[in-house]
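SECTION: protein entry
WANTED: fold as tokens:
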Amino acid sequence: MVHPVNGVALDMVHMIILKYLILGSMFKGLNVRDAEGFSLYKISMIENVSIATLYRRALELMNYGILAKMSRGNYTITTKGYFTILYLYITGSRLVNNELATASLRRLKQNWGLEEFSDDEVFNYVKLLVKGMERRRLSVLGICVDSFPRTVFLILPEKFRKKPVREAISEYIGDEALVKSAERVIAKAILELFPTVTLKDSCEAALMVWGRQGDAIRYRTLALRCRIHGYTLGECPIANNLINLLIH
């Protein structure tokens, strides 16, 4: 059975390839080493699917940007591939179960360098990205997710200078609780993407600064990494005082 994903058709053979690449070590008593770069030949022997069919499906997945070729007959899943699997899970596809989604989430966390955050925080961030895609009517295969910081553009409204970031995203996405649950991950993305200053108390702040030459410089604090509170989208009076001194 073929399941369209934003216009892209994935069937059970596609999913067999993806499952073995992600969960290969759990099948048929195989070694953990086989979980990465699992060969199509091994899959063909275990699942009794013709090697020609597997090669065709693998080529389709490569064209979608979900797979990358490692060597002859060996493939690995891309960051977009892990994201696509989570997209399927979040949007209710029966092709992806809890086990596959959890394994994909943990691989995505590694690729994005988010090991310091909980699975729930990163999963909720991905859910926000899916909501942002739906609002912008973007295809899951038409976006670039290789750069973690740039994914935050999917949930930032075009004009958010006049409001605190948390409020602006909550209004744009329409889910304040989900934004709050993924706040630390959002803050990290913003800190890696926007210009930052390091304050005397060792806190780091991402700023949006504007103002014409000769006018008073204006700014908004977008995100903070605070010694006390960690990653946050909230305002910090101490940080604001230090930023005022720095700018003015």
About this structure: Residues 194-248 form one domain. Residues 121 and 182 are 5 Å apart (CA to CA). The chain has three domains: 3-77, 111-192, 194-248. The two ends are 63 Å apart (CA to CA).
